[in-house]
Structure formats: C-alpha cells, structure tokens
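Late entry, evening session. Most of the bench is empty. Finally got around to the prediction I had been postponing all week. Sequence below, unchanged from the version circulated by S.P.
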Amino acid sequence: MLCGMQAHDGPLTRLRKSHEQSVLDLLRKHGPLSRAELGAHSGLSRTTLYDIVAGLVEGGTVVASTPPAEVRRRGRPVEKLSLNPQAGEAIGIDFARRAVHVSAVNVAHEMLGSASEAHPPDLTWTQRTDIAQRLLGSLGGPARGSRGGPLRLGSLSAIGVGIVGPIAEGARAPGPEPLAALLRERFGVPVLVDNNTRLAALAEAVWGAACDGGDVVYLRLSHGVGGGLVVGGSLHRGTDGMSGEFGHITVDARGAPCECGGTGCLETVASLDAVLARYRSAGGSAPDVPAFLDAAAAGDRTARSVLERVGRDVGRVLAAVCNAIGPGVLVVGGELAQAGPALVEPVERALHAHVMPRVRDRVHVRLATLGEAGSALGGIALVLHESPLLSRYPPPVAQEHA
C-alpha cells in the first residue's frame, strides 16, 4: 500500500514537493547536470534550487560528484548531480498473452537486464508470477555486469506491471487472484498495474522512438490492436482505463464483426490473424506471420498488397486520432511493424491524405524500437515517473495498489 496524505501536507510542502519532482525529472531526462544547468532547465532561483538539491542529497536520492582528474579542464572542477544509482532498483513485468517479460533498472535509469519466456495461454497468475520471479532471479550474476549479485529491492524500489486489457485507476488485476496483491506478497514492495500496451507507449516516449517528443500516440499491431497516449510525458488513462483503444475505431461499417461488439473495427483488418487470413484468401501460402513477413520482404506481390491495404486503414485511423488530439509523434509497434517500409509507407500516405493540412508536415510516423521488452520497460517508467517513492512526500490523495 502506498501511503496517503499526511497531516502537514500544506501549500508550502506541496510546492517543495513540486520543485523536488522537477529536479528529479530533469536528472532522469538529461542525466548528470551541474547546479547551473539545473537552474537553467528548471527556472528555479539559485537560493531555492540549492535548498532543494541539499535536501535531495541529504536524503540520498541525489548524489554529487566531480569528473575524474584526467577529463577535467582548467579551473575549479564543476560538480555534477545525478540520481543515486545505489538508492534502489525498479523492476517491470509484462504479463503478455503468451509470455512473461521482465526488465530491471536502477533509479539512475541504468539498465540492469531483461529476460523473457513464452508460456501456454492458460496459466494461472500464480504460475505466471513464478515465471517472473525466476526470470528476475536470472538477472543477477553475469547479467549485472561488474556489480554482480542478486537484485536489491531497496527503499526506493517498486514493481510496475503490465497486463492485457483495460485497467481502471486503482483497479485490481483480473483473474482468479488479485495480481497486484500476489506480487506484493511475493516481493514485498509496492506494485503499480496498468495496461501493457499503454506501458509500451510510455516506454517508447521515455527511452524509445519518441524520446524527443512531448505528446505521443502509440499503436501496437499484434494479436490485438491497441495503443496508448502520452501527454506531456505522462500516460493518459481515460475513464475506466479505456484510453488508447484505437483498434476499435471503425474502418468499414460493412466489415466483419469484432469481439468488442462493433463492426469493421481496425482490429478486424489489422490484427495478426486478420492480416494472415486476408493474405491466404488472396492466394498466399505462408503458414504463420513470420513467413508472411519474410514473403513481404522478398517482394511477394500478394503480401505487399495486403500490407498496402492494412497500412491505408491504419493511416486513416491515425489521421482521425491526430485531428482529435494533435500529437507530434506517432509510433507503430507490434509484430506487424517488422514489415518496415512496406507497412509504414502506406500508413504515411493515408495519414497525410486525411490529416488536417496545417499539421501534415509536423506529424511523424516512427517504428517502435524497444521490441518485446517495451511493456516491461514501461512498467519501470511508471514507477520512476509516478511513484511517490522517489520523493520524501506522499501522493496528494490516498492510493492503494495492492
């Protein structure tokens, strides 16, 4: 359980918390910075900044260091401030439909390792948690580089978890057991749960294809079609966790029925099974998606034609989303994105044909870069960006993630 509001959470305390969070955010984004650089980025006065930094250093969240003698320039060495990599570690777990993916970083955003394991789709949450625990155990030793040893779940540690399906604010995970409570009991640390596709969006905005963007739309083309919206560096969850359900935007009112209850949704034409079925109905012989992608890469006209049609539908949906919310970067991920230009080029053509002319040259489509580790890394980003464990103050309202 994450603590609720304290008795002395007054205006000055909240203002100080805001200043501290601003400094921590800058160190996470830029890495080590001098006090002068922090002042330029944050806009805080010199007196306020030095007071905030002193408190963070005293609390152990931030460390100060000077460059080694061999890299110093003339004059007094400039002290750099950075997040304390020894302050704790955060782990992310992605419980995908048929696999478990884990990643671990320290609070300075230094990657400690990632691991994955496929499994049958009918495992219980306890069995999936067993896999996650085993994978995390494998990240010790050689995977930790020179540091070695097991992962340390210290005072600043938490677990960010991605699962399939919508997650309302503060909701428990679906299934026969409350997943967050199960993980907290197993690891003894706070647990934050969100939709895994939405977490992949956050990861691409923090570490991946859109790390230089502000407002980001992410679309995953996989067994299902979904996405996520990152606004100003934070996830937009929507009512009852329904933000990012781009796969259920209608592209053909006379199309096939969708499992959501609608008709002709994007998911009915752009999910992996739908794409493979369309390819086979057109005479293609690929037995699975990897073979389909290989055929497309080899210039198979039927495969290329299918990708052209899928890309056109995806581009129209992304244009509608852009016209509604105005993001600067669009990231396309999932297995189908491995088709590369054969998919992205028709997406861009349709997008530019349907998006408002004044923003046509400002919207950019990029392929996701983080692969299957994306959602687990997004879980870590959720912890590092949203957990109150990174400051000495509780959140403004009581929350329970267990």
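Two things to note before I forget:
Residues 1-8, 141-148, 169-176, 388-402 have pLDDT under 50 and may be disordered.
The CA atoms of residues 68 and 77 lie 9 Å apart.
Will write this up properly tomorrow.
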